[in-house]
């Protein structure tokens, strides 16, 4: 049933997250920063970063999350500041190593 619901959501243009991770997304996720200080990513920032990892453009991410491409760019800018890099690939790599995204 969970798989069916997730597939339906994605096919309808939404985003699916396993219910077991909902509390983590709601509370924000801690990602080690480059200065060894944990930085928190919001649930939305994690969603955006996961879509970046999936190879989506800012426009495609905006369409998937019902955001403008400019808002996606703002999220990526904040993520970059928190992770200490403006490079999309490095953001993804850091978040994957920290276990924040797959």
UniProtKB/TrEMBL annotation:
Where in this chain does the record put each HTH luxR-type domain? 34-99
Upper classification of the source organism reads: Bacteria, Bacillati, Actinomycetota, Actinomycetes, Pseudonocardiales
- Does the record bear Transcription in its keywords? yes
Entry's Pfam families? GerE (PF00196)
The species this protein belongs to is: Saccharopolyspora kobensis
Keywords from the UniProt entry: DNA-binding, Transcription, Transcription regulation
Q: Which PANTHER family match?
A: DNA-BINDING TRANSCRIPTIONAL ACTIVATOR DEVR_DOSR (PTHR44688:SF16)
Full protein name: Regulatory protein, luxR family
Q: Entry's CDD domains? A: LuxR_C_like
Q: Which InterPro entries match?
A: Sig_transdc_resp-reg_C-effctor, Tscrpt_reg_LuxR_C, WH-like_DNA-bd_sf
């Amino acid at each position: 049933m969970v798989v069916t619901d997730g597939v339906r959501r994605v096919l309808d243009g939404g985003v699916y997250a396993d219910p077991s991770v909902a509390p983590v997304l709601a509370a924000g996720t801690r990602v080690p920063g480059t200065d060894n200080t944990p930085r928190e990513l919001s649930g939305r920032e994690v969603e955006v970063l996961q879509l970046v990892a999936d190879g989506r453009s800012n426009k495609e991410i905006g369409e998937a999350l019902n955001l403008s491409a400019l808002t996606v760019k703002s999220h990526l800018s904040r993520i970059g500041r928190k992770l200490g890099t403006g490079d999309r690939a490095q953001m993804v790599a850091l978040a994957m190593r920290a276990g924040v995204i797959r």
